[in-house]
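Final report, closing paragraph on structural work. Over the funding period we assembled a curated collection of sequence-structure pairs, and we close with a single example.
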Amino acid sequence: MQAIILAGGYGTRLAPLTYTRAKPMLPLLNKPMISYLIEALPPSTEIIVAANYKKEQLEEYFEENGINAIVNPEPKPLGTAGAVKNAARYINGTFLVLNSDIISSLNIRKFIQYHMEKKAKVTISLWPVKNVEQFGVVDIDRNGRIKKFIEKPRRHEAPSNLINAGAYCIDYSILDYIPDGKFTSMEAEIFPKVIEDGLPFYGYSFNGYWIDVGRMESYIEANKLLLKKKGLRFVAGKNCSIEGRIKESSIGNNCKIGENAEIKGSILYDNVEVGEEAIIENSIIGSNVVVKKGAMIKDTIVGDDEVVEGKIEGAKIWSKEMPKGYPKKQIGNVVKSN
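Its predicted structure, as stored:
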């Protein structure tokens, strides 16, 4: 079976971190985000990564780590369905479509088995939410068959509390629904048409955890969750000098944390130097950053190679020009909205 991993987005909501790296390469516990998804796949899965922006970083990572994956370039942004159709030459039967920026406890083997047992044409993963007003939910029968999608219903009108969780198992025949070379959304265009045509379309709900790593807050949440799963207060990479206090955080390689400095609920990339008595809270610090003595950084993203001092809260720090060709706003559709 093939798995198409969607990894072509720019990750604009996590800029300036994504000015210098592909979003799937953003680290969680010092490992690229996409590695968690690859590790969750059944061993015999053929991996096709639909990529565009900074795809060479993905190619280099796969090569260095002995990961047998095809990086299939998109000539332009094609949307979730367009990216799949662009990879059609690699697909020879039922296949998976997975979003590279979702961290979850989905058991992919059981997900595939459910799809096969139901003789479905499409099966999507489902996740329960409390605030249905902020999402598109499914109208689903007791056998798991999805009748329709309802976008952001009022609480008392919602047919369920289940949302699209971004993993799909799809029959080969569904490729015929997708036009060639055109920006097309699987969620907004293809799935409703499949349901309208009366084809068996099922939902698979699961328990555990599910995080769409699309914003600073969810990125930090995912890092904390993975720490908790491993029973760790923090992780630190190689060649680090730590004299301060660290809690619910990850520290990259070759970092220096000064005396009486505090790192709380944050992610530090490689080669970060944190001065004495500095405080970093709920923030993400890019590579080669210097945080001056006594600085206070909260709810902030700091891009690579910056020097920061004083008190900074709720900011995105990037003192250089925006990279050429990087969009000023998000391109395409997301799995959910919140």
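The longest strand covers residues 162-170. Confidence is low (pLDDT under 50) at residues 333-338. We thank the funder for supporting this effort.
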